[in-house]
Amino acid sequence: MTRHFSSLRDLDTELMVLSLLASGEPLVLCGRVVDTSSGGIIEDGCVVVEGSVIRDVGSRGSVEVPEEARVLDLRGYTILPGLIDAHVHVTGLRSGDYVREALTTPAGVLCARGARDLEKMLDAGFTTIVDAGGVIGLHLRDAVAEGTVRGPRIVAAGYPLSQTFGHGDVHFLPVEYVDARTTRIFQPFLSLICDGADECRKAARYALREGADFIKIFASGGVASQRDRPEYPQFTLEEIKAIVEEARRARRFVHAHAEGAEGIINALRGGVTRIAHAIFIDDEGISLALEKNAVIIPTLSVVKLLVEHGEKAGVPSWALEKAREVYKIHVENIRRAYRAGVRLATGTDFFFEPLGTKFYGLNALEIHLLVTEIGLSPLEALIAATKNAAYVAGLEGKVGELKPGYLADIIVVKGNPDQDTRTLLCPDNVVLVMKEGKILKDRVNGQDAHA
Ligand SMILES: [Zn+2]
């Protein structure tokens, strides 16, 4: 049985979240809805949730409301899909001198801190994150999925693939310490070092064997690697093609760190359509990205925060110098890509959190920077953080939009983030977080209903 309602008198405004969870009753959220599918706003809208999925979305009166449904009156708030950080690393690190810290901190401590960082991201409205390399994110993925840890859904790369002298090689350690297959030390950034198409295939298969949801590769040097530079291309086209082929055979995809122009072009030519950083993307890279319908994840946030906090946090000087050097050109090149029509997605690339600062939980900074630095409209930036980021996560058609049949990943925020993204920078403004139909944060009435 269904009923239509058109007047507010029909709304049951009582919030009994925990009993709702227990009863499994359909739930209707009524307020201002941001539709990231069409890029429109439904001023007086409703989202009907049943079990773990969205059943209907539309303006009040147009949606069918099940007879037994409980209705949440969210007038004055904005309802939008759960946000997605499409490139971040859960490491538990609290220092920018990460290798030194990792070598002296027990793995269990790093995992516990990582679990805490996941909570901070969830409370900030992030219901999915893409962990773009690192064993802690890989393992915490399972802890979140089984319900042990309260956090966003994690789509994890696990061990990333790097060539010898690549961005994922720690140049000042013996190479056998760096490779996950040979090391006897633990640090969150263990890689699979591989050279030549055959070794690359084998490394890709090893990453899959360890549970990777997708394969992460380093297609260029970078800011945070000691002896290379962002401009250096890494992996040959043949090597990249071999990895992409292995991913495809296992129904997965490849996500490339690519900062230099040549590395970006190689990755795109090799079949990679998720390109992180893209600092030096040139005209050829832009037209290839358009041709392949690739998504770029610029990750401006980490560069900005490294410049601001890096020195105090112990980030090595060689990394800081490169970060300072590239930020301006990075912004200019991403602006050109955006104006040419390349799709962008939000990713912070946070990989540590200096003591006394707040990185995790500030993931919406990337949404805000896409507006203030690159020139996206707030609504476009929200699409970058939902629909486009869902593509990067390999979850397009499942999350990132409020559509019937999609997973009920929904957040409710104070203010109008489609007009002013600053509201998302404060996690207290995120009053409700729902993941797969379960309410994991509820502060609509000013108090936390989460037990
Ligand atoms: Zn990264």
The helix content is 25-40%
**Small molecules held by this entry:** zinc ion
Largest sheet: 7 strands, mixed
| CATH fold descriptor of the largest domain | TIM Barrel
Could you list the spans in which at least 5 consecutive residues all have pLDDT below 50? 1-22
What percentage of amino acids are in beta strands?
Answer: 15-25%
User: Could you tell me the mean pLDDT?
Assistant: 92
N-to-C terminal Cα separation, in Å? 33 Å
Q: Can you describe what's shown?
A:
The chain is α/β, with parallel strands linked by helices and 451 residues long. It folds into two domains: 2-82 and 401-442, Urease, subunit C, domain 1; 83-392, TIM Barrel (Alpha-Beta Barrel), CATH 3.20.20.140. It is built from 14 helices and 19 strands. It has helices spanning 17-23, 98-104, 107-123, 135-145, 175-178, 197-209, 237-249, 261-269, 283-291, 300-309, 317-340, 365-374, 378-384, 387-392, and strands at 2-3, 27-35, 40-50, 53-59, 65-66, 70-81, 83-88, 126-131, 153-156, 161-162, 192-193, 215-218, 254-258, 274-277, 295-297, 343-344, 410-414, 430-435, 438-442. The strands form five sheets. Strands 4-3-2-6-17-18-19 form a seven-stranded mixed β-sheet. The protein has a five-stranded parallel β-sheet with strand order 12-13-14-15-16. Strands 7-8-9 form a three-stranded parallel β-sheet. Strand 8 (126-131), helix 4 and strand 9 (153-156) form a beta-alpha-beta unit. Helix 8 (261-269) packs parallel to helix 9 (283-291). 57% of the residues are buried. Bound molecules: zinc ion.
